[in-house]
From TrEMBL:
Protein name: Glyoxylase I family protein
Pfam families per record: Glyoxalase
Alphabetized PANTHER family for the sequence: FOSFOMYCIN RESISTANCE PROTEIN FOSX, LYASE, PUTATIVE-RELATED-RELATED
Keyword Cytoplasm belongs to the record: no
Keywords: Metal-binding
Length: 128
């Protein structure tokens, strides 16, 4: 096996239009492809991250809720690297996003913080 990179991260949302607006307008991720899958009554939205990675945003009727936050088994959080955490925090606050206080990673000495998508998925901003 020769794994070379992560191809995509898949997220199931509870309200497609709200999550689509969050990821495309608030986080400003460009749309690669959008399709409605009639047989599943589900949208699939492919988003680009830095023209390298993809996020697949899915909608399904009545998806189960996340059991706990954030220590449930499975994906803990999604992390985005940014050149400057303070600048990113200020931009998100201007858009009405609630953000945790900026912290310092005791191992790398890098700045980071967390906020949530519309379904409560933890998203981390980590300074490059």
């Amino acid at each position: 096996m020769n794994i070379t990179k992560i191809h995509h991260i898949a997220i199931i949302c509870s309200n497609y239009e709200v999550s689509k607006a969050f990821y495309t307008e608030t986080l400003e991720l460009p749309i690669l492809n959008e399709v409605f899958r009639e047989e599943r009554n589900s949208y699939k939205l492919d988003l680009l991250v830095n023209d390298v990675y993809q996020i697949e945003l899915f909608s399904f009727p009545n998806p189960p809720k996340r059991p706990t936050h954030p220590e449930a088994a499975g994906l803990r959080h999604l992390a985005f690297e940014v050149p400057n955490v303070e600048d990113a925090v200020n931009e998100l606050r201007e858009k009405g996003i609630m953000i945790e206080p900026i912290r310092i990673d005791p191992i790398t000495d890098k700045k980071f913080t967390f906020f949530q998508d519309p379904d409560g998925l933890p998203i981390e901003l980590y300074e490059a």
